[in-house]
């Protein structure tokens, strides 16, 4: 690949740790690089909406926390990841210098946002889980199997968050696979 070739990388807007994990898992499974984007509001969410964001403090803490998480988990996944702060205020997350940005473009790196799609499918995973388990999600005890049957395993957030991760990961994988073919016409 020469300096004038273009490499498209998918960029996912990641608004929570399960979304980051799903994107990294998808990239790992198909051995593809990825761009993880953080927004100012998303960064605040990582720190917790209960923290004050006066002076953008929670956004800064959250962006740093997410960056550490991405760096550590990406290393375990064995994939290259670019962390991008496209909607963060400059003081929230220090951006690359203009020279670094010019260098990246001259190397042919271009990103493709898939954030709207991934946000929708994250919700879709939760919605599908709810629809398929509706009879188990109305009370703590009592479901289609009997009035004294517990429902904890259905309303445990880990259950529906995992379904959201799966849908999110499927969408990330589809974008990654499309770009692998684009970037490697011999595939």
TrEMBL record:
Cited InterPro entries: Aldolase_TIM, FBA_II, Fruct_bisP_bact
Pfam families in UniProt: F_bP_aldolase (PF01116)
Cofactor(s) listed in the protein's UniProt record: Zn(2+)
UniProtKB keywords: Glycolysis, Lyase, Metal-binding, Zinc
Gene3D superfamilies: Aldolase class I
GO BP terms: gluconeogenesis; glycolytic process
EC number of the protein: 4.1.2.13
Top-level enzyme category: lyase
Pathway it works in: Carbohydrate degradation; glycolysis; D-glyceraldehyde 3-phosphate and glycerone phosphate from D-glucose: step 4/4
Catalytic activity from the UniProt record: beta-D-fructose 1,6-bisphosphate = D-glyceraldehyde 3-phosphate + dihydroxyacetone phosphate
Cofactor info, note text: Binds 2 Zn(2+) ions per subunit. One is catalytic and the other provides a structural contribution.
GO molecular function, one term: fructose-bisphosphate aldolase activity
SUPFAM superfamilies (UniProt xref): Aldolase
GO CC, alphabetical: cytosol
Family membership: Belongs to the class II fructose-bisphosphate aldolase family.
Function of the protein: Catalyzes the aldol condensation of dihydroxyacetone phosphate (DHAP or glycerone-phosphate) with glyceraldehyde 3-phosphate (G3P) to form fructose 1,6-bisphosphate (FBP) in gluconeogenesis and the reverse reaction in glycolysis.
Protein name: Fructose-bisphosphate aldolase
Source organism of this protein record: Ambispora gerdemannii
């Amino acid at each position: 690949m020469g300096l004038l070739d273009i490499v498209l990388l998918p960029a996912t807007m990641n608004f929570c740790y399960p979304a980051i994990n799903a994107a990294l898992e998808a990239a790992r499974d198909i051995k593809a690089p990825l761009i993880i984007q953080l927004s100012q509001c998303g960064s605040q969410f990582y720190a917790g909406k209960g923290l004050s964001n006066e002076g953008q403090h929670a956004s800064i803490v959250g962006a740093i926390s997410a960056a550490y998480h991405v760096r550590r988990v990406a290393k375990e996944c064995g994939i290259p990841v670019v962390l991008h702060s496209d909607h963060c205020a400059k003081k929230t997350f220090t951006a690359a210098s203009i020279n670094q940005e010019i260098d990246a473009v001259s190397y042919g790196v271009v990103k493709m946002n898939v954030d709207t799609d991934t946000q929708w499918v994250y919700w879709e995973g939760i919605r599908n889980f709810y629809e398929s388990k509706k009879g188990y999600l109305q009370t703590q005890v009592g479901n289609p199997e009997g009035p004294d049957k517990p429902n904890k395993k259905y309303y445990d957030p880990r259950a529906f968050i995992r379904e959201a991760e799966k849908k999110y990961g499927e969408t990330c994988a589809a974008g990654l696979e499309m770009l692998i073919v684009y970037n490697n016409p011999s595939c």
